[in-house]
Amino acid sequence: MHGRSVLVIDHAKKPAEKVRISGGGRCNFTNIHTEPANFISGNPHFAKSALARYTPWDFCDLVARHDLTWHEKTLGQLFCDQKSGAIIRMLLDELDAANGELWLETEVSEVGHRNGRYHLRTSAGDVSAQKLVVATGGLSIPKMGASGLAYELARQFGHEVITPRPALVPFTFSGQLKDTFSSLSGVSTPVDAHADRGPDFHEAMLFTHRGLSGPAMLQVSSYWRETEPVQIDLAPGWHVPDVLGEARDASPKTTLRTWLATWLPARLADLVAGWPGIPGSKQLANLSNNDIETINLALKHWKVTPTGTEGWRTAEVTAGGINTDGLSSRTMESRNQPGLYFIGECVDVTGWLGGYNFQWAWASAAAAGEALATHQ
Ligand SMILES: Cc1cc2nc3c(=O)[nH]c(=O)nc-3n(C[C@H](O)[C@H](O)[C@H](O)COP(=O)(O)OP(=O)(O)OC[C@H]3O[C@@H](n4cnc5c(N)ncnc54)[C@H](O)[C@@H]3O)c2cc1C
Q: For the residues 290-308, what does the mean pLDDT come to?
């Protein structure tokens, strides 16, 4: 890196394991619609500078320089045609080109700062460096080597850590709701959904044995806090009284249950038709205006309160993390401790599902890299 020697230390057996498993093995490496609004942070302005200076197209250029190709799957999500392994090879080739070294299966047990240098105690011996970039991620998927090292180091050097919480994670339920969802396990349907403090997500929702998942619920989970309800619109984009009114004129003898099944998966239609106050077996011709209003409310404003989430075991990312107040948004350098940088998921910047988290990892890394290259 521009005259500096670079050493990457990782306790994992293999490099970039999360890249390998990402995007179902095809690495959803960025999103062409990346905007600061796609990130959750205590300071929504913090990510702007890095994201503006290293865009999805910068990463696409890098991918193209390595003769790799990609395709857009949906909603601006770019996936690598050659699978995740090719992206890992590319990152390793870039490290080689910068004469960087990679030490795998190396544990960092202690970091100190003396005489203007960082001193690391590692399982492969002591190392010292003028600058230290911490990119050890968040707490999601401990089985893959996630650790709280970044947070420990941040606290050691005087930073505040906003309590990390699992994000992009399925919801779990208990009691009657759990049984109901379990009986619908495998059913998927498009919804508009939001948590109290989050935006509406228009994506698919999936019923599971333990609760609710699918892209819509994963997105909502990043904004959700315990004991809060999740609002679900099971009829996204349709004006129920109009659609139902037309159906009543066209096929008055159809039952409400049958009509619901023309819009919703059959098992879900059966569930809705049996909800209290929903006259599932009534013919459309006999529906009163009150009935229609009840059906409208039930479909458009379904409110469920999760018991919790599947937690760190399956969360795709960690929300919260190192408070951005203590970091420079231009360089990711600590404001307390010169020469110390925090990048990627350990910082309190959490992307939506769909390539945004890698884009933040690349952009924050590029911001720190640029600073390291220009400041001696
Ligand atoms: C199943 C899954 C699928 C995902 N799919 C996508 C996707 O398609 N698109 C997307 O944008 N995002 C995706 N993500 C999120 C994305 O992988 C992360 O946001 C991203 O990898 C964060 O990069 P990072 O470098 O900050 O941390 P990480 O990639 O987590 O890397 C941290 C590294 O630090 C090492 N480490 C940790 N603790 C220590 C320690 N004490 N000593 C030494 N080394 C340590 C780890 O071994 C690891 O290699 C996915 C996540 C998961 C779990």
A: 96
Contact criterion met (CB below 8 Å) for 15 and 105: no
170-190 mean pLDDT: 97
Closest-CA residue, ligand 1 atom 34, reads 136
Judge if the beta carbon of residue 370 lies within 6 A of ligand 1.
Answer: no
- How many A from CA of 315 to the centre of ligand 1? 11
Q: How far is CA 129 from the centre of its chain?
A: 33
CATH pick for 170-309 out of 3.90.550.10, 1.10.10.60, 2.40.30.170, 2.40.30.10: 2.40.30.10
Cβ proximity of 333 and 327 under 8 Å: yes
Q: How many helices (H) and strands (E) does the chain have?
A: 12, 21
Taking CA atoms only, the protein residue closest to ligand 1 atom 32 is 136
Give me ligand 1 centre to Cα 9, in Å. Answer: 14
The band of 3, judged by pLDDT with boundaries at 50, 70 and 90, is low
Nearest residue to 29 via CA among 60, 67, 8: 60
262-280 residue pLDDT tens:
999 999 999 999 999 999 9
Q: Which pLDDT band holds residue 97 (cuts at 50, 70, 90)?
A: very high
Instruction: Name the closest-CA residue to atom 20, ligand 1.
Output: 358
* CATH 2.40.128.20 is right for the domain spanning 7-167+322-374: no
- Quickly state the pLDDT bin for 2 (edges 50, 70, 90): low
146 in Cβ contact with 140 (< 8 Å) = yes
Structure confidence by residue, pLDDT tens digits, 33-44: 999 999 999 999
CA torsion, ordered 347, 352, 357, 360, to nearest 10 deg: -60
What is the distance in A from the centroid of ligand 1 to the CA of 137? 5
The whole-number pLDDT of residue 374 equals: 85
Question: Looking at ligand 1, which residue's alpha carbon is closest to its atom 22?
Answer: 345
